[in-house]
């Protein structure tokens, strides 16, 4: 499944009218995509009123030197499970390299390292993830639900505010999202 390997390390922008309100204006950082399915983190929105320090306290980690930044709404699946998208300069127990572009960790050692100032230099914390079963994402891609961006610049992941990512992704692709229809035509 060559197209599946191709999507890991890329970004998906939810098209207007995707048909699932959980993905309105979503921007998914695809972390894995193979014959068994796909998994990604929505980097396009944060939880209102929830910060990293809140999460750290919930798992009994002293916030230490970690900045108190917003937490991403990673997706509709397992929203109590945390993930850290981060630069490849740090690796922990379960860290996976995502196509040589960034890394993903899902255990508390990443949060501890960030709180101690010994973690990755660049990171984003998310709760939840987006997941697709075998062939499901491929099917959604053929129905024009997602726009795929092969973006090599890490700025969208680490430097751009979450609420600007969806719109900025379309602009980067040369598309004005205001001109996109919410529904496809019917003949």
TrEMBL record:
It holds the Pfam family DUF179. InterPro entries: AlgH-like. Belongs to the UPF0301 (AlgH) family. GO terms for cellular component: cytosol. HAMAP family: UPF0301. This is UPF0301 protein NEE01_07280.
